[in-house]
Amino acid sequence: MSAAQWVEPVDVHAVTGTAEALFRSTFGGDADGVWAAPGRVNLIGEHVDYAGGLVLPFALPYVTVVAVRVRDDAILHAVSTHTGESWQGPLADVAPGHPSGWSAYVAGVVWALRRSGHLTATTGFDVAVHSTVPVGSGLSSSAALECAFALAVADLAGLPTDESGRRPLIDASIRAENEIAGASTGGMDQSVAMLARPGHALLLDCRDGASRHVPLDFRSAGARLVVIDTNAPHRLVDGQYGNRRATIEKACADLGVATLRDVADRDAAVAALSSPAAQRARHVLGEIRRVYEVADLLDRGRIADIGDALNRSHASLRDDYEVSSVELDSAVDAAREAGAWGARMTGGGFGGSAIALVPTDRVDAVVENVARRADTASLPTPQFLHAEPSGSAHRL
Ligand code: GAF
């Protein structure tokens, strides 16, 4: 078996150069500017953002970069190094399902900003995209693309881009994903891409949008957070994610609450529901409690003690929410067996990535065990990424 495969973050200037070169070769001339936004992992608080819960994600040192130039004919022309494909069309034609694929995230942002009155009907854009966020790995490459482009559009349109100015950009990015791309995701990913701070996680209350930054320094705790990309593709636009969200919304209707966060008696609420809604609600209610628990430990500088909550989160996602996969379970079990303090799937699930909190001197043993176990079970070869809490979307 080959040595464990690490994906190293690429220097942002090299990423910028690639996007600028693609821009010049496609459109001729220079872009008006270049913007970047990060991928993310969620430390804890999974499948609770659309239930009015609390989440605790942070930005990764892997980014999506867009080189953008304004045009005045209401046309969008977007090209990406990922597929080599381009999409060109009138912005007036953008609608749910059109365009499809990655260009929906770009076109959807303009569509949403036009509808919210932030952009004039004549404005168009040339866009070149390059990303170091692995695509389809549950690390929010789509939110990174939406947010990098939303920030570019705002800057070029003279809109405010301070923290409060970013709120409508987050909303536009969520609408692009929900309404044009057709993925009924909850908003955590766009929020952290826009609001993250280096060295911190973002404690986000998805009921009212309030947030605060929680210090997160793995190194000072003698640890690393390792991202395990299982290389088993994850999809948010297939039926399973939407199915979980619909189950939670129906449970709220049955319980007579606006969100599960509003439930007063957790045990009574679960008892009042039938299967599988009861198990799904039990996950959501327990996971929200675990976010409080982890945020409290982090506030007290006790990173080494959060592992147990990570493990309980994974068990709940696997058994009650049923969004894990054989690849994720294998990665989590192997990481713990080799000395991780805690491990869990992260993001939407059904494939994608896991995270493991690992004492520094066990990192090599953990990644080797995860890779070996995948190999033995004939699962896809995983790759590993570094999770240093990083900054939000910005202009380069
Ligand atoms: C995906 C979604 F995009 C988020 O909104 C969130 O629901 C997450 O899955 C699960 O916590 O990343």
TrEMBL record:
One GO BP: galactose metabolic process
Name used for this protein in its record: Galactokinase
Lineage summary: Bacteria, Bacillati, Actinomycetota, Actinomycetes, Mycobacteriales
A GO CC term attached to the entry: cytosol
GO molecular function: ATP binding; galactokinase activity; metal ion binding
Keyword GTP-binding (UniProt): no
Tagged with keyword Magnesium: yes
Domain annotation GHMP kinase N-terminal: ranges: 105-195
Stretches assigned to the GHMP kinase C-terminal domain: 296-372
